[in-house]
TrEMBL record:
Protein name per its UniProtKB record: Trimethylamine---corrinoid protein Co-methyltransferase
Phylogenetic placement of the source organism: Bacteria, Bacillati, Bacillota, Clostridia, Eubacteriales
One GO biological process term: methanogenesis
Keywords annotated in UniProt: Methyltransferase, Transferase
Coiled coil: none
Family: Belongs to the trimethylamine methyltransferase family.
Organism encoding this protein: Lactonifactor longoviformis DSM 17459
GO molecular function: methyltransferase activity
Keyword Membrane belongs to the record: no
Highest taxon, organism lineage: Bacteria
Pfam family, one: MTTB
């Protein structure tokens, strides 16, 4: 049941694991298209409504009806991958195909203090330390702030966050905006580092997140304004929704995904009407509403399944996706956190979801923790070794070596082992493999090892400093941001 006008990239882009079949993807996509052309979405900004009207949509009361052919045209015109560079102009990630990258998430109102372990309001230094830790972790590919800063005025908290990220990591960053003004100031900061706005657009090391539609099926006035600016800026854009099963989305996974996909495709349509061919990564966070507490559960099997289905859908559509992983409902970096984080990361890695954010989240996206970043880094490394698979060729089959060693021999001292073990084996930095006699000299458990490694990063790691003239420009932009709210 192929969808007219859409080519399936399900097989081309697919990961090692599929949660749904190609036909099931088509049923969900068709359902989303049906929602858009029958139920429609409430679009609250007049400029957006006028843009859609010009493209052939029609307004029925408060809702806008999206013609199927327009949606398909915009899917086909959107960039098939999202490319981000590091601060030095090297390609850091290509979100497309079945490539999977991991990074932090934004806006936790609380933070588990590294020194005391106590939960408190998130402050500016939490962004500083999160970026520094992420910069040091080899399996963290991009950086978000992890904390909703409380010790500066809210209207410029997004600009302060970007400042701290840019000065504490060389990895790609994703910024969000309280309003258009803050997003504009963030782009000015990034342009100062790149050398010019054109240089930034040519090799972007930042993407912008304007916020989410209101589920179900509403695109608010401010969210559209921010989306419009983000697309016009020339930088890649992130567009996500949250499907909470049984509350603001149907309790059934299929219904929630169809509704959420309609919201995502509305963002794709708007982005392509603003700037055809722009890069936009979409995602749906599928959360269980725990019926005993009414809290949303990130650490659920439904969330893991939802992440894999979303990956299949966007592989089919040949669009980059934003995923979720490295987050737990636990209040501490403990055994529960390890279980939930591991399941999410292995499912994302096997499914080939593209940009997996929210690494470092505790308490169902209410609190951040540096130790959660460090533990997740280890888990991601483990998962990446699994998805790396193996090479099969004459050298790796080692028939000559097997024949040479013969029955009853050993391979430990053979040159073949020396030549290949570094590539074949994954080497952990936290998982303990010592003999008991060696381990018992310190008897450090996993929590202690995570804490010690994190402490070492904070004490020793610093990203390369920005040039003095660039720092002067960043400081000036931040000062101007502070002036506009006085």
């Amino acid at each position: 049941m192929a969808i007219e006008g859409l080519k399936s990239y399900y097989q081309i882009n697919g990961g090692l694991f599929h949660a749904v079949s190609e036909v099931e993807c088509e049923r969900i996509i068709n359902a989303a298209l049906t929602i858009m052309e029958t139920t429609g979405l409430e679009v609250q900004h007049e400029r957006a409504v006028a843009l859609l009207d010009k493209a052939g949509c029609r307004k029925e009361g408060k809702t806008v009806i999206f013609p199927r052919n327009l949606v398909i045209r915009c899917i086909n015109s959107a960039a098939p991958e999202l490319v981000l560079y590091d601060r030095f102009g090297n390609v850091a990630l290509r979100a497309g195909g079945s490539n999977t990258y991991y990074g932090l998430g934004p806006t936790n109102p609380f933070f588990n203090d590294f020194e005391t372990g106590r939960r408190r309001e998130a402050v500016r230094r939490d962004v500083t330390y999160s970026a520094r830790v992420a910069d040091a972790c080899p399996n963290i590919d991009f950086v978000m702030g992890l904390a909703q800063i409380s010790d500066c005025p809210v209207p410029i908290s997004d600009v302060v966050e970007m400042y701290e990220m840019l000065t504490n990591t060389v990895k790609p960053v994703i910024g969000w905006g309280v309003g258009v003004e803050g997003l504009r100031e963030q782009v000015e900061m990034c342009s100062a580092i790149a050398g010019s706005r054109k240089d930034l657009i040519d090799k972007p090391f930042a993407a912008l997140f304007p916020g989410c539609p209101v589920t179900p099926l509403i695109i608010p006035h401010l969210i559209y304004e921010k989306l419009e600016y983000c697309v016009q800026s020339g930088l890649p854009v992130i567009w996500m929704s949250g499907a909470q099963l049984g509350s603001v989305a149907p309790v059934t996974m299929a219904g929630a995904l169809a509704s959420g996909l309609a919201e995502m495709l509305a963002g794709v349509v708007l982005s392509q009407l603003i700037r055809e061919g722009c890069s936009i990564a979409c995602g749906m966070v599928v959360l269980t509403v725990d019926m005993s507490t009414t809290h949303s559960a990130y650490g659920s099997p439904e969330h893991c399944l939802g992440e894999s289905i979303v990956a299949d859908l966007f592989h089919y559509l040949n669009l980059p996706s934003m995923q979720t992983g490295g987050v737990t409902d636990s209040k501490l970096v403990d055994e529960q956190a390890a279980i939930e984080t591991s399941m999410q990361i292995i499912m994302n890695s096997l499914s080939g979801g593209h940009l997996v954010h929210d690494v470092g989240f505790l308490d169902g996206a209410m609190s951040g923790a540096l130790e959660q970043i460090v533990m997740s880094d280890e888990i991601i490394g483990f998962a990446r070794r699994i998805t790396k698979g193996m090479k099969i060729n004459r050298d790796t089959l080692a028939l000559d070596v097997i024949h040479e060693v013969g029955p009853g021999g050993e391979f430990l001292t053979h040159e073949h082992t020396f030549e290949h073990f570094r590539e074949e084996f994954w080497f952990p930095t936290l998982i303990d493999r010592q003999l008991y006699s060696s381990w018992s000299k310190t008897s450090l458990d996993m929590r202690s090892r995570i804490h010690n490694k994190t402490a070492g990063i904070l004490a020793e790691h610093r990203a390369p400093a920005l040039p003095e003239e660039v720092m002067e420009q960043l400081n000036y932009i931040l000062e101007q941001a502070q002036t506009r709210i006085q």
